[in-house]
Design a protein that fits this description.
The structure holds 2 protein chains of 2 kinds. By secondary structure, chain A is mostly beta strands. In chain A, 0% of the residues lie in helices and 50% in strands. Chain B is mainly beta. In chain B, strands 2, 5, 6, 10, 11 and 12 form a 6-stranded mixed β-sheet that branches. Chain B has a 4-stranded antiparallel β-sheet with strand order 3-9-8-7, with no helix packed on it. In chain B, strands 1-4 form a two-stranded antiparallel ribbon. Chain B is globular and about 45 Å long. The chains are: A mainly beta, B mainly beta.
């Protein structure tokens, strides 16, 4: 059973471009969480999704950020018109059920230049 | 509101000596508590979890933690530190009232001195 797979591991974008981060949950997991980690800080919750539904997006910035978890395929975190402040590590976690233990991916490190 | 406080941002121990990483939480409901470890430029690995069963929880790599409700603490310990234990450690809380979130502490960086 492969773990949570995130790609790319590293992503460099120029200001104004779009960043698209992918997360494939563990087999059998239908709950996906996205977290952002700024340098020297802990992880901050962004969004929680189940298949085809956004359950809680209270941690998502109101503009430029969106997330989806389609019926088929990975969960996608999309950041439009990136700015330098978006540079961070973005972690995805999956869980077999709400608030059961979460398994984290290796993260995508986004650098905006 | 739920929160997690990791009392030490940095802990330094000598190899072979005990490790204590402190964590206090606040939760209005019966919490689930976790410790995760993050090695440099790596993802997070679950060390152990408490979910209302035995209050002393044993995890991987010789780590364990004790849930103390009266002290609202969930400190992480290991009898003897190994060089490979050097990493960032996060205490995490969730409960039925957090909705859908795992709340992370700010992390404790563990240094192991040879």
């Amino acid at each position: 059973n492969a773990g949570v797979m995130q790609n790319p591991r590293h992503l460099v974008r120029r200001r104004g471009q779009e960043a698209r981060l992918r997360c494939s949950p563990m087999k059998g997991h239908s709950h996906v969480y996205w977290y952002r980690q700024l340098p020297e800080e802990g992880l901050k919750f962004m969004v929680y999704l189940q298949k085809e539904n956004i359950i809680d997006e209270s941690g998502m910035p109101k503009e430029r950020f969106s997330a989806e978890f389609p019926k088929e395929g990975p969960s996608i975190l999309r950041i439009q018109q990136v700015v330098r402040g978006d540079s961070a590590a973005y972690f995805c976690a999956s869980s077999p059920g709400q608030l059961l233990e979460a398994f984290f991916g290796q993260g995508t490190r986004l650098t905006v230049v | 509101a739920q929160s997690v406080t990791q009392l030490d941002s940095h802990v330094s121990v000598s190899e072979g000596t005990p490790v204590l990483l402190r964590c206090n939480y606040s939760s209005s409901y019966s919490p689930s508590l976790f410790w995760y470890v993050q090695h440099p430029n790596k993802g997070l690995q679950l060390l152990l979890k408490y979910t209302s069963a035995a209050t002393l929880v044993k995890g991987i790599n010789g780590f364990e933690a004790e849930f103390k409700k009266s002290e609202t603490s969930f400190h992480l310990t290991k009898p003897s530190a190994h060089m490979s234990d050097a990493a960032e450690y996060f205490c995490v809380v969730s409960d039925s009232n957090t909705g859908n979130q795992f709340y992370f502490g700010t992390g404790t960086s563990l240094t192991v001195i040879p």
